[in-house]
Amino acid sequence: MNTLEETELCFPQLLNSSCRKTMRPHSVSLIIYVILSAISLITMILNLLVIISISHYKQLHTPTNLLLLSLAVSDFFVGLLMFFQIMLIDGCWFLSDLMCVLYFLLDYVITSASIGTMVLISVDRYVAICDPLHYPSKVTPKTANICISMCWIGSILFQCLLLKDNLQQPGSFNTCFGECVVVVSYVGGIADVLLSFIGPVTVIVVLYLRVFVVAVSQARAMRSHVATVTIQGSVSVSAKKSELKAFKSVSVVIVVFLICLCPYFCVTVTGQDALLNSSSLVSVVCLFYFNSCLNPLIYALFYPWFRKSMKLIITLQILKPGSCEASIL
Fold first, then answer.
1. Which of 29, 64, 77, 91 is 20–30 Å from 277 (CA)?
2. What are the G-protein coupled receptors family 1 profile domain coordinates in residue numbering (predicted)?
3. How much helix, strand and coil, in percent to the nearest 5, is found in the chain?
4. What residue ranges define each of the domains in the chain, with the CATH number in brackets?
5. Nearest of 164, 197, 169 to residue 267 by alpha carbon
6. Cα separation, 104 vs 203, whole angstroms
7. In angstroms, rounded to a whole number, what is the distance separating the alpha carbons of residues 175 and 265?
8. How many Cα neighbours within 13 Å face the side chain of 167?
9. Are 124 and 211 in contact (CB under 8 A)?
10. Could you tell me the pTM of the whole model?
């Protein structure tokens, strides 16, 4: 009986001071580990391909692609963090208390930076569709880089402030050895919900509703005038078609993001995570993480440049001199 009891502890040598493991059949645990490890590895590889593609090829240095680059960076780190999530599945944390706080800090920073990047992508598409004549002057690569930098710096500063007490005294909120817990103040929790979820999602939805109305009207206008356009007009129509196609592609990314994000935030901000069993909670968290694996697949489906750049990277043609000047579009 004592042996059975010891096997349920994270640190059997500590007896009553140790946290208890979440017991599952060995086959179930093995399946979970294999699936999450595969998703984590695929997520990192695919997003690394996106990062290399946009960073290396100068032709891809457009404002929209730079925003996708920022999203790919956050998605890459999500894949990396999934290895730590795998460690927590059994309810045991075997690293130091400081590493636990840093894990949550990185997790929160990546989440808020991803959401901030989605807001920037929504603004980018809003200006491109609703004010196309001024888009090249208003939205430049320099402007995009500044906004991305501010988004990441703001996320880091805000989350460090939110977890200040945990960073000063790592592990002070743990109730047993092997636990990984961080506590956020009531005011900080409300601020986090408003700034990291409700506010950004509201902005994204409002902008996309507006853009959707304009995009539909533009599509109808193009269909009604397609037979009578002049050569100059056809260039304009072609440009509009290109913007609408980009809008559709990015829309899929944002819709999938919201579908994966909302269950995660609804569970965590309402405190329902304490009421759910571990399997349900893991499912919600994994759905949120799985979004980072889906984004590159969406790029591969909608963006020919990503498929072409992947081929060049895999075949090592990217190592040739002057490859950064290659025509990708």
1. 77
2. 46-299
3. 80, 0, 20
4. 27-223+232-325 (1.20.1070.10)
5. 197
6. 26
7. 25
8. 12
9. no
10. 0.81
Amino acid making up residue 77: F
Residues 6+ apart with CB under 8 A from 314: none
> What DSSP assignment string belongs to 136-149?
HHHS-HHHHHHHHH
DSSP secondary-structure letter at 170?
A: T
In whole angstroms, give the CA distance from residue 241 to residue 237.
6
Place of tokens 């020919």: 304
Structure-token pair, residue 244: 């609408």
Residue 298 has a pLDDT of 82
- Identify the residue whose tokens are 């190592």: 319
Query: d(Cα 309, Cα 270) in Å, to the nearest integer?
Result: 43
Q: Which residues of 209-244 are buried (b: 16+ CB within 10 A; e: fewer)?
A: eebeebbeebeeebeeeeeeeeeeeeeebeebeebb
Helix 97-130 / helix 199-225 crossing angle, nearest 10 deg: 30
Cα 42 to Cα 128: distance, rounded to the nearest angstrom: 32
Residue given tokens 């599945």 in the structure block: 89
